[in-house]
């Protein structure tokens, strides 16, 4: 099995494993105890904190270890919001943050007086510093921006946004989960959150750095552990392993960055040559070294992943059809990118050129097979026409990518300037039909409710998406 | 070094270590992914949940893994309170709960409309079910009771209290951190919280069981992991190790319980014979198998621990002088037990009879040496007398156990029926002077503010504790 899903979790780095085993022997005791084992545990914890702080580029007493990156984000956001409660209750986040940030923002919105502004991104998934400038207000307590996007790899202008925030007197929290293994966060940030298992450390360790001078009130209940910012017995062996592996991956970062960047460039260049109807998404240059995402028209993401798994490749997808919530990736949606047939390839350190080439060999056949399976839906609904909507295709009850496949099938039958309407009850169609129009240079007219159309069955509760044939 | 502090954290069980290593290889991937590594991780997680549920005595889908026992307690309490918000905002806890429970109660008290009743304990540290019955009200949302006390080992009447709660329609959360490695929680509980590193599992894993039918609303922000009750990437290798070691310690429990119970009985019997002026606290029979606590008059807890550490023994203390917060143990305070010179011995599984005997050999000399060191304070303040207070001893600026040592030194000079007053600014004196009176059969008269006494320096801000000589 070739593992190309490092952005979900990186395989344990050999240094992490070694450090973990050593710390299981040396660092199992309670570091708050006064006897020898306790003091030794405390020394290991202090040393791990020094190492992590050096990698982050801050003081050791600014770093605490949490139980996960998610917990670091939740605590960082809640603590900064509470610390600046007097300034106001306004929070600014980008629309493409990791779900942990967006969940924290939703929780804030649901709480007393919480107000959230979500910053839009361009088609590459990147925010503009000016949009942050416009969003900051007198009552803004905190702004959040990821260092780089976890789904499409686009690197964000963190240093610029930090400057904007600094000028407005607003702290900036940077979710550096995807990038901290590669480099420190640049710019004048106030808080940084990260996750050890993303850089080859063990699961169960997050990192939260809060610069001195940033007002911070840790969410209750708290205890005396980790400066009162991460309650519960310290997961010391894992913390030691996390710090050791962070140092190790940083030492390897320059060489590995160059190597993986070149491999990803190869994937970015070859996939559109090898597979028809593919959109490679995300910024081609300002990106993470190891990550690339592309979407394949007329393909079901889950089927694609299953076929790739059979062929021996582990990859991930932001398609609606693979996540447990059955909603399309909020990142792809915010970018206006196609969500169907989405594949994220994220190379782990040490990924071989041979494996990448084999992936490129296998991919075209896999996509073709899945397209063939989906290309002929068993029972196509009869097409009807309607004055206002032109040709109407009923795809109710059909999951993505069927609505787009049906649309693509009939577009040639529509006269140039004429309309075609797809009725669908799959939420992904809202994203994928406009994205298909953009890729195919067709005009997306808009959507409207399809509940009361007389030529559709009364239980129909879909949405009608209308397209005008341009070419 | 002989480790007698298993109640702080148990050494890693060999089965846990073995399972951890295996799961680092087999269970490192994201269990929510569809490829082979992800599916394998999911299977390991499901199996661990089954194993843990069997040990708890509940259904697998009632169990989630958290990042620590503290987190399990915090989430359990917050979730149950939120789930029963309509019932009311009243929370009942015992006065001797673990700090994680008390911190959660304080956070609830500080929140909108939160109201907390703390149930007192008897001198053995045990609550009465009737006191819970009296405390439950129409607006009680939740009651909490530990299965056994972590400082003195007293086992609580959980089944009885559960029955009382059930009759009142109030869910009962049981903090089973100290006992789950020995046995399931008895009675008709609603929620159970526990911590893997207390039973020989790794750090970084807690367990929260919520019975079906218990109203529960997990605190926000949440995500899709662990039924929405424990956000963040699952710490899978540690979870697998936690479940495996729970099963392993349960298999050994009957034999080990008998062995450790006998060793603790030996300590309980021998310590008062070997060391003068000692109070062994906690219930002698209804207790944890492996834990015993005693307090030595006229001894500084920190000094005692340091000497025992030098002699090769790692033990813990609830004395004011050893905790980082410098306040006396809330457990000993609630029991009305002496806090000075407090030592908690908690035997790990496999603790040897020879080590226990060596501890009993070493202890008397250690206590004697510490008492000698403290017995002659360098500069005793002049004693004065006062009409209302009798002999007055100024111990301002002196830490425990000096105030009690000074009291003990002069009591013989006080006529029977006469008064002696100790002025102290150490919070521990509030607990230790009444406890000393009880042990020495003297009458504790009471306390009052000592700020404005003319014969004391103006900066004095202590409290005056007055004692009447009875014998």
TrEMBL record, chains A, B:
Q: Which cofactors are required for activity?
A: pyridoxal 5'-phosphate
Listed GO MF terms: transaminase activity
Q: Give a yes or no for keyword Transferase in this entry.
A: yes
Checking InterPro entries in the record gives: Aminotrans_V_dom (IPR000192), PyrdxlP-dep_Trfase (IPR015424), PyrdxlP-dep_Trfase_major (IPR015421), PyrdxlP-dep_Trfase_small (IPR015422), TusA-like (IPR001455), TusA-like_sf (IPR036868)
- Out of the domains of life, which is the source? Bacteria
- Give the UniProt keywords, A-Z: Aminotransferase, Transferase
Question: Residue ranges of the UPF0033 domain?
Answer: 393-417
PROSITE patterns of this UniProt entry? UPF0033
The signal peptide annotation in the UniProt record is: none
Catalytic function, reaction form: (sulfur carrier)-H + L-cysteine = (sulfur carrier)-SH + L-alanine
Q: Member of which family?
A: Belongs to the class-V pyridoxal-phosphate-dependent aminotransferase family. NifS/IscS subfamily.
Q: Tell me what this protein is called.
A: Aminotransferase class V-fold PLP-dependent enzyme
The record lists the organism as Streptomyces humicola
């Amino acid at each position: 099995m070739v593992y190309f899903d490092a952005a979900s979790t990186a395989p344990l780095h050999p240094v992490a494993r070694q450090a973990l085993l050593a710390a299981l022997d040396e660092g199992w005791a309670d570091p708050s105890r006064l006897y020898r084992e306790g003091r030794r545990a405390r020394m290991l914890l202090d040393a791990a904190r020094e190492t992590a702080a050096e990698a982050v580029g801050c003081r050791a007493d600014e770093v605490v270890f949490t139980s996960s990156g998610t917990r670091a984000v939740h605590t960082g956001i809640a603590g900064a919001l509470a610390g600046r409660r007097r300034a106001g209750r306004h929070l600014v986040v980008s629309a493409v943050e990791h779900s942990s940030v967006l969940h924290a923002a939703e929780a804030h919105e649901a709480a007393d007086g919480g107000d959230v502004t979500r910053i839009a991104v361009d088609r590459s998934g990147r925010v503009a510093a000016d949009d942050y400038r416009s969003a900051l207000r007198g009552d803004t307590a905190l702004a959040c921006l990821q260092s780089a996007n976890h789904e499409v790899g686009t690197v964000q202008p963190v240093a610029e946004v930090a400057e904007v925030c600094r000028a407005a007197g607003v702290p900036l929290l940077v979710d550096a989960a995807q990038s901290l293994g590669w480099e420190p966060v640049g710019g004048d940030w106030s808080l940084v959150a990260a996750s050890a298992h993303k850089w080859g450390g063990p699961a169960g360790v997050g990192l939260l750095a809060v610069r001195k001078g940033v007002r911070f009130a840790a969410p209750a209940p708290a205890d005396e552990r980790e400066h009162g910012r991460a309650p519960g017995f310290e997961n010391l062996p894992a913390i030691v392993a996390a710090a050791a592996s962070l140092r190790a991956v940083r030492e390897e970062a320059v060489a590995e960055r160059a190597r993986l960047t070149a491999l990803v460039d190869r994937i970015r260049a070859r996939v559109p040559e090898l597979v028809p109807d593919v959109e490679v998404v995300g910024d081609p240059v300002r990106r993470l070294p190891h990550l690339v995402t592309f979407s394949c028209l007329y393909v079901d993401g889950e089927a694609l992943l299953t076929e790739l798994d059979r062929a021996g490749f582990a990859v991930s997808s932001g398609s609606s059809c693979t996540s447990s919530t059955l909603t399309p990736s909020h990142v792809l949606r915010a970018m206006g990118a196609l969500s169907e047939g989405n594949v994220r390839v994220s190379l782990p350190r040490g990924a071989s050129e041979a494996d990448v080439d084999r992936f490129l060999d296998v991919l075209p056949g896999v996509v073709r097979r899945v397209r063939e399976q989906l290309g002929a839906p068993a029972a196509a609904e009869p097409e009807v026409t309607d004055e206002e909507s032109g040709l109407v295709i009923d795809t109710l009850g059909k999951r993505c990518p069927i609505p787009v496949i049906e649309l693509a099938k009939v577009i040639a039958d529509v006269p140039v300037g004429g309309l075609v309407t797809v009725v669908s009850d799959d939420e992904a169609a809202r994203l994928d039909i406009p994205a298909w129009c953009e890729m195919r240079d067709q005009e997306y007219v808009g959507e409207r409710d399809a509940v009361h159309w007389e030529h559709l069955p009364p239980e129909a509760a879909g949405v009608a998406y209308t397209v005008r044939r341009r070419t």
